[in-house]
Design brief:
three-stranded antiparallel sheet, alpha+beta, disordered C terminus
């Protein structure tokens, strides 16, 4: 993919019907957007768009035009310059990345995120949810609401000012009387003992105060609250969540040693019998965890193929996989393949066997076996039943042998990436705790022994969705969380993850080791964050009208990012410059938090047990240690910062409510509940 230059203008000439005035309508919309004063206000852009949409009913075949108009609107919201040339062509250019002015760049990115966030807050269901949490109700003899879980910034600032005048040697002890954080996990059905509100609803409410849209993520997810027991109702200090990691992140994979070139260098150095044993172990495990009864019955495979696979068998499996994938795209329905959609009367064995026999997993199983058979053929050319170091070196010198090692590496990574790794998907402080760097506390708690232990407990018995569907029987992977990844919201300026490091000795580890957020690099500026939900829906509708279009079902196990595939296919259908439009111009800092000493070896399956940097025998003691570290390292020095304490005091709970932890549905919303309503 050729990356377009920053100042390159490129033509948008969507494939629109000639009749009915669709092309003229597209050019007229572009002209009106380009004529708005710059930078254009979002309200002005919406007015222009609404006027354009009002005329769609009179145009034939409106789906392509609707999608094209919405794409232009989204680009205008994100400050993409739009112009019409003298020959009537519509051209756009990506916005400049203002890297010499971090504040301007942050504001540009923030606006990009707020478009979707504000769109979500306008939804009736979201507004009802927010109003419901803000409405007071009687609980244990007291009137409470979500406002009860917000701490008054004036009271907190006053308490911290008193502490800074105390004896320096007793500052930490005094601080615990003012701020005393602890972790609370958001379990299904759990409620707050102080307000009676569902913990999931509390978490979601405060998540809506973030500058980006709240979305649920597929795969594993574990949310938590950081609360303050030093104050009545135990107000919320911050929120966090771990989720299934992004499968492919170049910067992370290179650092871990998962990148093929980096691993081959490691293999060249290793070049031992142990490497041969590992290769054989991964191949054998992969084949043994693949359901084959139907393939045998259909005579696609014979028992002898597993001992001595042939090129013909590999070819047959590949053709079969392609045919099954086509059937899946034509026939599958998302609701029929939802995660854990097992009926009460259905056994786990029967459920996973049915999953394995679906078109999707027939295709995946056939491809997996074809890959492993290729590896077996390559390994058989070089390795004897008792491999020697010399045989391994010969394997590494051969092109086919090196390709086989890459295939095994890919399989080993797939077995661990969604189980032993997680991304910190949400992490931050809630007002008024931001000015005292509560975000640093929430960040380090996300990597604390208590979170790691809770993750292990939650998923210790969970059957792996993809592995079980491939095997046709329940497969449970060890739930040892050994690595956390995350990214900054912005690619410039400071981040709450910067300079986050804590001695492992405070957590029962070794004095010369640290629990640290490592900066691994910067991610590419490629993705879908600049397209709104209406645009995505319009592109999906366009694709599904096409007889040749493949249905993107958003089924877990189909592949990477259904949303990206939907948008890409829709842009391709419109014959727009897909790669250029998906380059949104945002770079993020990629962070990694290794939790064990033998990270690469464990993640590759070479070591069976993780060697943690800290003691897991008393997880809550680990949380107390992190809180003490935060107080000494970040909170105590902040006491001298009058500006920080003044900002904290701005978050007031007196009427009218001016508190940063409150979800603002609109600047002046007469329907939003007041703190004193119903009292």
């Amino acid at each position: 993919m050729n990356k377009p230059s920053q100042d390159e203008w490129f033509v948008l000439a969507p494939s629109l019907p000639e009749e009915g005035g669709a092309r003229a309508a597209f050019r007229a919309h572009a002209e009106r957007l380009s004529s708005l004063s710059q930078p254009a206000e979002d309200g002005a852009i919406e007015r222009v768009t609404n006027e354009a949409m009002q005329h769609l009913g009179g145009l034939s075949r409106t789906a392509p035009l609707r999608a094209a108009l919405l794409i232009l609107t989204d680009l205008a919201h994100q400050r993409w310059p739009i112009r019409l040339t003298t020959d009537g062509s519509v051209e756009v250019r990506r916005p400049e990345e203002q890297r010499l002015d971090p504040l301007s760049e942050k504001e540009r990115i923030r606006r990009q995120e707020l478009v979707k966030r504000d769109e979500q807050l306008r939804e009736p269901s979201t507004r009802r949810f927010v109003s419901g949490l803000e409405a007071s109700h009687l609980f244990k003899g007291r009137r409470v609401s979500v406002f009860s879980l917000m701490r008054d910034g004036r009271e907190l600032a006053a308490g911290l000012r008193r502490v800074r005048s105390s004896d320096p040697e007793s500052v930490t002890a005094s601080l615990k009387q003012i701020v005393d954080p602890y972790l609370q996990f958001v379990d299904a059905g759990a409620t707050c003992e102080h307000t009676g509100l569902a913990l999931q609803d509390i978490w979601r409410y405060f998540r809506h105060t973030w500058s980006n849209q709240y979305t649920s993520t597929p795969g594993r997810t574990m949310a938590f609250l950081v609360r303050d027991r030093a104050c009545d109702y135990h107000p919320i200090v911050g929120i966090g969540a771990l989720g299934s990691p992004i499968v492919q992140i170049r910067e992370r994979d290179a650092w871990i040693g998962w990148h093929p070139d980096a691993f081959l260098e490691f293999a060249d150095e290793e070049g031992s019998v142990a490497l041969a044993a590992w290769l054989t172990q991964i191949v054998d495990a992969s084949v043994s965890e693949c359901y084959i009864e139907d393939f045998i019955e259909e005579q696609l495979l014979k028992p002898g193929d597993f001992r001595a696979p042939s090129v013909d068998v590999i070819s047959q499996l590949t053709v079969y996989a392609e045919r099954q994938r086509e059937l899946h795209h034509r026939l599958a329905r998302s609701k029929e393949m939802k995660r854990s959609a097992r009926s009460n009367a259905e056994s786990a064995e029967a459920h996973w066997r049915k999953q394995a026999q679906s078109h999707l997993y027939r295709s995946k199983r056939a491809l997996a076996l074809a890959d492993m058979f290729r590896v077996k053929i390559a390994l058989g050319k070089f390795l004897s039943e008792s491999p020697t170091a010399e045989e391994v070196r010969a394997l590494l010198k051969d092109q086919e042998g090196r390709q086989a090692i890459k295939t095994v590496l890919r399989k080993a990574k797939a077995d661990r990436v969604g189980i032993a790794m997680a991304d910190i998907t949400v992490c931050g402080a809630v007002a008024p705790y931001g000015p005292i760097l509560g975000g640093k506390l929430v960040s380090m708690l996300a990597a604390s022994p208590e979170v790691i232990a809770a993750y292990r407990q939650r998923y210790s018995d969970q059957q792996s969705e993809i592995a079980s569907s491939m095997a046709g029987r329940p497969i449970v992977r060890p739930s040892h969380l050994v690595f956390l990844g995350t990214t900054s919201l912005y690619g410039v300026g400071s981040s709450q993850y910067n300079r986050l490091r804590m001695s492992a000795a405070r957590l029962g580890g070794k004095a010369d080791e640290q629990l640290v957020f490592l900066e691994l690099g910067r991610s590419g500026s490629y993705g879908t964050s600049h397209f709104g939900s209406a645009t995505v829906e319009a592109l999906v509708a366009l694709v599904q009208q096409s007889l040749t279009g493949q249905r993107v079902n958003s089924i877990f196990g189909e592949g990477v990012s259904p949303k990206l595939r939907k948008i890409r296919e829709g842009l391709d259908r419109l014959k727009l410059p897909t790669d250029a439009l998906l380059m949104h111009g945002r770079h993020r800092i990629v962070y990694g938090v290794p939790l064990i000493r033998n990270l690469r070896e464990y993640l590759l399956g070479m070591d069976r047990e993780p060697d943690y940097l800290f003691d897991l025998s008393d997880p809550k003691a680990g949380t107390r240690a992190v809180v003490s570290w935060w107080m000494e390292r970040w909170l105590a020095p902040r006491l001298k910062n009058n500006d920080a304490l003044s900002k904290m005091a701005d978050h007031s709970l007196v009427r009218p409510i001016r508190h940063g932890a409150r979800v603002v549905l609109s600047p002046e919303d007469p329907n939003q509940t007041s703190l004193f309503d119903d009292l």
